[in-house]
Structures are given as C-alpha cells and as structure tokens.
C-alpha cells in the first residue's frame, strides 16, 4: 500500500506495509509510480519518500512474490521502470531512511535525488546469499553513487552497513534524527531552479542497455535458485 499526503511544497509518499517491513509487490510498485506521476502533475517541488513504522524503510521486493515469479525478467524490468520514474521525476525526491533498507529498498533509495538516514538506518544487498541480486537498476546506480570499489564490496559481500558507514561511503548525504526537515529545506528554494539543477546533474548516457542485461541476468539466476529461495522461506 502506498499513502500520499500533500503539505505545502512537500508531498510525502509512504510505503505502508510495516508488517512486511514495507516490502513491495507489483501492485505497490504501480501505486508508487502513480504517486510520483501525481506529484509531477501537481507541480510539487519536493517528494519525501519514507517507510511506515520504525523497523524498515523498505525491505525490497516481497519474497512471496519473488518465489512465485513466472517471468522474473519482466518483474525486474517492472521494478526498473518504477525506479526510473523516481529518478526522472520533475520533483526532487528525498528518501528518508529510518530502519532497514534491503535489496530493492536500497535500489529505490539510489533512484532518489537525496538520501538522508537516521542513526537507526541500515543497508544491505542480501540477494547474493540466495543466488540472486538487486535488479531494479542497482548495478547501474550503485557504482555511480559510491564508486566502483565501494559498490563491489557492498554488493558482493551482502553485508549490513550502518548509517555511519553509509555516510562515509556516500550512500547517504546526511545522518539526522529526522530526515523530513531536509526535504522541507530543499523545498524552500525556487521550483524551476530545482528542476533545472536536477536535470543537469542527471544528464548521463542512456542506461537502458545495461538495465536490460541486468534483468536478463536476474531471470537466469531466478530460474536456477527459485526452489532454494522458497525452501529457505519455509
């Protein structure tokens, strides 16, 4: 479930499945993409993306969905399109990360323009432990954000990174008690200037070919390890 509330120049979009650590199903992905489109249609300068509850920002893809996939490549492409919608939004999207960001939750945060963590935030790409990996654009965006060396260590180890290390890596730009005032601070600036600055900073070569290759690799691994993932869930 995705909830949206508008408050002046900041629109808050909340991933609201705290009982499942805000894990995302295909319907949630669609709702998130629609929420971003609605913010742009309303010419909202800043979107503040957060997770409900105190346990997690977003645990990534819902594992019940992952284990039941009939077309894993299409699912990866679905997540990539939603992450691209976040990255390409006219609004500045600020991720407020409190609690765990895992897998697709990390990738969703990477698609945001600004990532702000609380001291309780943690990050990991644990898919390699099950024979998979994050395939919502993470292999494209992660090295761009933190550099290739840090990206390799983080993604290949599957280890959990706390907020302090995430700040050192450049995975987040600030660690604060409450990330929302950062979104409000950005929203005090002129919307047209924000839009142009974001556009120029995001102007890079087309990543579509790399994302297609990412989705294809995810599908191959899913076919190989889906039964193991399902067994591990039992």
TrEMBL record:
SUPFAM superfamilies in the cross-refs: ClpP/crotonase (SSF52096)
Pfam families attached to this UniProt entry: ECH_1 (PF00378)
GO molecular function: catalytic activity
Protein family (similarity comment): Belongs to the enoyl-CoA hydratase/isomerase family.
PANTHER family: ENOYL-COA HYDRATASE, MITOCHONDRIAL, ENOYL-COA HYDRATASE-RELATED
Entry protein name: Enoyl-CoA hydratase/isomerase family protein
Protein's organism: Halopelagius fulvigenes
Highest classification ranks of the organism: Archaea, Methanobacteriati, Methanobacteriota, Stenosarchaea group, Halobacteria
């Amino acid at each position: 479930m995705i909830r949206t509330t508008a408050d002046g120049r900041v629109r808050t979009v909340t991933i609201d499945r705290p009982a499942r650590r805000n894990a995302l199903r295909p319907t949630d992905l669609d709702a998130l993409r629609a929420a971003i489109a609605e913010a742009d249609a309303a010419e909202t300068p800043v979107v503040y993306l957060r997770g409900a509850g105190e346990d997690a920002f977003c645990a990534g893809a819902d594992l019940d969905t992952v284990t039941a996939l009939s077309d894993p490549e299409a699912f990866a492409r679905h997540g990539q399109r939603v992450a691209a919608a976040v990255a390409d939004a006219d609004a500045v999207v600020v991720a407020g990360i409190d609690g765990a960001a895992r897998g697709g939750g990390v990738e969703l945060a990477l698609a945001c323009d600004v990532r702000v963590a609380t001291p309780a935030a943690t990050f990991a790409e644990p898919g390699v432990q099950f024979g998979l990996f994050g395939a919502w654009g993470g292999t494209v965006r992660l090295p761009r954000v933190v550099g290739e060396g840090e990206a390799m260590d983080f993604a290949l180890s599957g280890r959990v990174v706390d907020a302090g290390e995430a700040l050192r890596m450049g995975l987040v730009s600030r660690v604060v008690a409450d990330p929302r005032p950062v979104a409000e601070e950005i929203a005090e600036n002129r919307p047209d200037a924000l839009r142009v600055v974001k556009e120029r900073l995001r102007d890079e070569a087309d990543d579509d070919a790399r994302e297609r290759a990412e989705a294809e690799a995810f599908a191959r691994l899913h076919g190989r390890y889906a039964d193991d993932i399902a067994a591990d869930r039992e």
